[in-house]
Write a structure and sequence with these properties.
It is built from 17 helices and 17 strands. With 484 residues, the chain is of the alpha/beta class. It folds into 3 domains: 89 residues, Orthogonal Bundle (Arc Repressor Mutant, subunit A); 138 residues, Aspartate Aminotransferase, domain 1, CATH 3.90.1150; 237 residues, Aspartate Aminotransferase, domain 2. The strands form 6 sheets. It has a 7-stranded mixed β-sheet with strand order 8-14-13-12-11-9-10, with helices on both faces. Strands 1-2 form a two-stranded parallel sheet. Helix 5 crosses helix 14 and helix 15 packs across helix 17. The site of pyridoxal-5'-phosphate (PLP) has 14 residues, from helix 8. In the C-terminal section; belongs to the class-I pyridoxal-phosphate-dependent aminotransferase family.
Length: 484
């Protein structure tokens, strides 16, 4: 079904469209078209949405109808809008574009674009040998239909052994293999969060988790993470006690996007409080393998779980390769069975070959992970040095793990900067993508999963448009007006 966005709503999303960088050089209609393209590319304006009638948008933006008409024509010409007489105009995608793993639209063939929208590394060299070995393993499974809704037992055993090694007793029956951590989250929400359920998440948080929650029509509330220090225990536990949510989603290990690591004592108190408020805790361990500094890791949140309140989800995307699409749920064995029953109605089972590749890959996990950590450490330090040198007003703390720096900018400019960066071939996921209601404009996530040369080049390009932004927009956001 096509959804419609009203004039007032689109005007709100467009925000300061008339003061984008370069605005002084381009006419109104071009600036408006560029701003709509920007919203599409950062995912805040979905695909297939019907835009307001020209007259309605003109009124909402206080511009002439000719301006909106010309902007719509420009968007049609670039392939971002399709119109049919009588049916209206809806957002589309130019040919040759695809959906990125982050849910953002990216040009497929533009090799010059540096993609800082995605925080995940390229595959390790061990992948191809693992795939060859897996192909040799495949005949063992070819004599059956190949549907294994809970996953191949050999992979479930390896994943369970990983939890054992981290100090939490886990059997293979407690593991469900999924198509990535994202599917793990979706399945858990289908089971544990009926439509309309109150759900507590961190702010900022992982955008695709917000997307999964919205798709399940959760009533989302947030508790804020401090940029420098991470979780405020009293705030988090207070929010749980006050809102008594059905479910709470947390990323305790190298939180995406801030990179923070939750302390052992807060993990323990979190589980106890969740039990007392009747809240299921969904713990996203996507980044757990990627500690870059520090000593011993805190134990998994599930260690403190005595009442089957904790459902852990994780996967191979961050430590190994996202293209494998291998993730999992760790829960009680009966819950795993219920999730598998739901999963049959979604995609039946995960592909056998990919699971065999995962088993073979995990045989080399110590080397793969230590190489990955060394690479991320180098890239983090290069990125941090470039930002410190070229954007000295930005503030950040060096994350002890993960692959993202969460930078506090020198103004509420994140979306405008992302649009401007697109013009110089850098894709950014602006701060508001990590929260609700367009907040977090003062923040930007900078991943360091790309090679060092690309990171320094990206910062150089961002710094150059940051400078332009200043010249174009100073009056609109630097001087708050006083309302007496
Ligand atoms: C916190 C978090 N959860 C889930 C995912 C998605 O992971 P997967 O590729 O395993 O579906 C990501 C990827 O960025 C992530 O950062």
């Amino acid at each position: 079904m096509t959804t419609t966005i009203r004039g007032g709503q689109l005007a709100r999303l467009l925000g300061q469209w008339h003061s984008l960088p370069g605005r002084h050089r381009s006419p109104d209609y071009a600036a408006l078209a560029a701003a709509v393209r920007g919203l599409l590319s950062d995912g805040r304006l979905p695909l297939g949405v019907r835009l307001p009638a020209e007259r309605e948008l003109a009124e909402a933006l206080a511009v002439s109808r000719t301006t909106v008409s010309a902007a719509y024509r420009t968007l049609r010409e670039t392939g971002h809008l399709t119109s049919r007489r009588g049916a209206g105009s809806w957002t589309t995608l130019p040919n040759g574009h695809r959906v990125a793993t982050s849910g953002l639209w990216t040009p497929e063939d533009d090799r010059n674009v540096i993609d800082l929208g995605v925080a995940a590394s390229a595959a390790p060299p061990e992948l191809v040998p693992a795939a060859r070995a897996a192909a040799d393993d495949l005949p063992r499974y070819l004599g059956s239909a190949g549907y294994h809704p809970t996953g191949l037992i050999e992979l479930r055993e390896v994943v369970a052994a990983g939890y054992q090694a981290r100090g939490v007793a886990t059997s293979a029956e407690q593991i469900l293999i999924t198509g990535g951590t994202q599917q793990a989250l979706d399945l858990v929400l289908r089971l544990l969060a009926p439509p309309g359920s109150p759900v507590l998440v961190e702010a900022p948080t992982y955008p695709n988790a917000l997307a999964a929650l919205s798709a399940r029509r959760a009533r989302i509330s947030t508790h804020g993470l401090d940029t420098a220090t991470g979780w405020d225990g009293e705030m988090l536990l207070g929010a749980l006690r006050q809102t008594r949510p059905r479910l709470s989603y947390v990323i305790p290990e190298f939180h995406n996007p801030t990179g923070h690591l939750m302390t052992t004592s807060l993990r323990e108190r979190l589980v106890a409080t969740a039990h007392s408020t009747g809240t299921d805790l969904v713990v996203d361990e996507s980044w757990v393998d990627l500690q870059l500094d520090g000593d011993e890791m805190p134990p998994p949140v599930a260690v403190f779980d005595r009442h089957s309140r904790v459902v852990s989800i994780g996967g191979l995307s961050k430590g190994y390769w996202g293209g494998l699409r291998i993730g999992w749920v760790r829960a009680s064995a009966p819950l795993v069975q219920r999730l598998a029953a739901i999963r049959v109605g979604v995609d039946m089972a995960s592909p056998v070959l990919e699971q065999l590749v995962a088993v073979r890959l995990l045989e080399h996990s110590p080397k793969i992970l230590s190489d990955r950590r060394a690479e991320l450490r180098r890239q983090r330090d290069v990125l941090a040095a470039a930002v410190t040198e070229l954007l000295p007003e930005w503030r950040f703390v060096l994350p002890p793990g993960g692959a993202t720096i969460w930078a506090e900018l020198d103004g509420p400019i994140s979306s405008a900067l992302a649009r401007a960066a697109e013009d110089v071939g850098v894709r950014l996921a602006p701060g508001p993508r990590f929260g609700l209601d367009g907040t977090l404009e003062r923040f930007l996530r900078l991943p360091f999963a790309l090679p060092s040369e690309q990171l320094t080049e990206a910062v150089r390009r961002i710094a150059s448009v940051r400078h332009d932004l200043d010249r174009a927009t100073i009056p609109s956001w630097r001087t708050p007006s006083v309302i007496a």
